[in-house]
Design a protein that fits this description.
Four copies of one chain form a homotetramer. Helices cover 32% and strands 20% of the residues of chain A. Chain A has four helices and six strands. The longest helix of chain A has 21 residues. Chains in contact: A-B, A-D, B-C, C-D. At the A-B interface, α1 and α2 of A face α1 and α2 of B.
Chain lengths: 170, 170, 170, 170
C-alpha cells in the first residue's frame, strides 16, 4: 500500500463511459469516490453499484467525481472487458469505469488492487481534493455513513481553502 | 409455439448443477417451474432468480421441480457457458440450469426460446404434471400470484388422479 | 377453539369500511381471508396489512373476500375504536375491519381471539367456501406460501362443485 | 418562524424516555437532530423513525443528539400521550420524545410546529452546535443526503472552534 500521503492512483488497461482516461492529477480539487467492484459480485450488483450511482447524483453539485474500477481477482475468463461492456449496458451504468490492469504472470490480483491492498469487492476508495487516499471502505457501507464520509472530504478542502491567505472555494 | 397440448420441452447444449439432463418425460408426474433467464438481465438477478430459489424451497414437498434455462439472445460473447458457471457459483444457485441451444446461423434467438415464442427474460414457464406447458409468465410476477399459479398446477393433477377410477396420487 | 368443522365466525362490537356487518353465513360460497391485527403491532403494519391489501387485489376475481379484525389484547387505552378509525384513514385501508368484542371483566383477550385460540398478531384466518376455518397462519407468512394457501381454498370448493351431480361453478 | 440566528427551541407538555427535559441550552456544543413526527403517519413509521434510530447509532461518537417531537396536528383524539407511550413501547423507540404543546383553543397546530412553520410530518430539524436551527428537511430524505447534512453540522463547529484563538474541540 502506498504512503497514504502520496497521490498514487490507479493503473488501468482501458476505460468505458469516458473519452479521456481520468487521473488523480487531472481531478485535483475534486473529491473522488472510486468503487472497486466485480461484475459478478452479488454485493456489488445489489448494493454498492446503486450506491455509487446515487452518490454521483447527490454529490455532483459539491464537486464529487464517481468512478468505477473493475478489479477482477477471480473468474478471469468470465469477467472480460467484453463481458463488462455488456454488464455496463444492461445495468445502465454511466459513470466512467476503468479496468484494473491484470497482474503479472501467475498473479490473480490486478495491479491497483494489489497496490492499495484491497480486501475484496466492493470497496469504496475515497480520495480528498488533494488527491490523497483518505478512506477505504470494504463491504456493505450504510448510506448514512457513506454520505457522512464523503461530506467530510467535500468540506475538508474548503476549510483548508478558507484558512489559506487569499484562499477561496475552488 | 408448439401445440399447448403437446409435451415439447427444451433443447439444450449443456447443463449445470445436475449429472443427468432433465427432460419432461422423466419429470412426468411433477410440476415443473422453469425460469428462462440471462445472467446479465437485471430483473432476473434481482427478482426472478431469488424467486425461483424460494419456489424450490417452498414447493419441494408438493412435488414441484425448479429448473433454470439460460436463454441468451443478446451479448452472446459476454454470456458464455464459462461466464454462466462463474455466475451460478457467485450467486449460489443450486437448482439445475440448462443452456438453451444457440440458434442456427444468423439467428440471435436460441432454439427453445424461439420454440415457445418467449418475449424476453425473465419468463417463468409452468408445466403441469402431465408435461404440458400451462403458463408463460413474462416479466415481474408478484410472489402472491406466482404461488397461486404453482399451487393451481400442483392441485390440478391430484384432482384428476382422484377422479380417475383406481386413481391416486402419483 | 371451535370444532374445525363448525362455522363459528367472529363476534364484534362494530365495523369500519362497510355498511353491513359481514358474516360467514352471508359469505358462504366465497373464500374469506381474515387478518387479525393490532394497529400498534409493527409486524402487522409493515407486513401483514400490505399483504392483505395485495390479497384483495390479486384474488378478488376468484371470489376471495378480505376482512380485518382488530383483536386488541394489550394497550387497550391506546387502541380504541377512535384511534383505529384514524389509523384506517391514514393507512388508506379500504377493506372492511371489525372490532373484536372486548372480553369479560378482567379478561384482556377479546372474544373472537379467545374463541380461535390465536397466538398473537398478525394472524391470517383462512375460511373455505363452506365457511369452515381451514387455516390459521401466525406471524410472518411469505407471499409465495400465502398465495398458495389461498389458491388451494379457492380451488377446493370448485372441485367439490364439479364432483357433485348437476354441480357447477358458483 | 423565529429568526434563524436565534436559539428558540421547543415547547412541550411532557417527555418520554428521559428523566430530564432536554433543552437547546443544555445541549449547546452538540448537534441536535430532532424528528417531528406523528405516530399514525405512515411515512414517519416506515421511513423517518428507523432513520432517526440509525442516526443515533451512527453519529453518537461525533456528539450528535437525536430527539423526537410528537407534533400532533390531526386525529388529536387518537394520538394522545397514552397512545404515544404504547407506540414507543411497541416500536422500541429509546431516544427521548417530547410531546409538542397543543395549540391554543381552536388551533389544531401545536406550539413548536407553528413556531417553526413545519409543513407536516415527518420533518427533520437540524440544530448546529451553537443551538441555531440550520435545516428543516420535510418528507422523505435519502440517507445519503441526511448523513451528509448531519456531518456538515458536526464539522462546522469544530472548524469554528479551531479558528478561534484559544479554541479547541468541545
Amino acid at each position: 500500500m502506498p504512503d497514504p500521503g502520496e497521490p498514487a492512483g490507479w493503473t488501468t488497461s482501458q476505460w468505458f463511459n469516458t473519452l479521456e482516461e481520468p487521473t488523480l492529477e487531472q481531478l485535483r480539487g475534486r473529491v473522488v469516490v472510486m468503487l472497486a467492484f466485480q461484475m459478478l459480485c452479488p454485493g456489488c450488483v445489489s448494493g454498492a453499484i446503486p450506491q455509487a450511482r446515487a452518490v454521483a447524483e447527490t454529490f455532483a453539485p459539491l464537486g464529487v467525481e464517481v468512478l468505477g474500477l473493475h478489479t477482477v481477482f477471480e473468474h478471469h475468463a468470465a469477467m472480460t472487458p467484453v463481458a463488462l461492456a455488456a454488464f455496463l449496458h444492461e445495468y445502465r451504468i454511466t459513470f466512467p469505469v476503468g479496468v484494473d490492469l491484470p497482474g503479472g504472470e501467475g498473479d490473480p490480483l490486478p495491479v491497483t488492487m494489489r497496490r492499495y491492498g484491497l480486501q475484496g469487492t466492493p470497496t469504496f476508495l475515497l480520495f480528498g481534493r488533494d488527491g490523497r487516499l483518505a478512506r477505504q471502505l470494504f463491504g456493505h457501507v450504510p448510506d448514512l455513513r457513506l454520505g457522512a464520509e464523503i461530506m467530510a472530504l467535500a468540506l475538508e478542502q474548503e476549510m483548508k481553502a478558507e484558512d489559506e491567505p487569499g484562499g477561496g472555494r475552488g
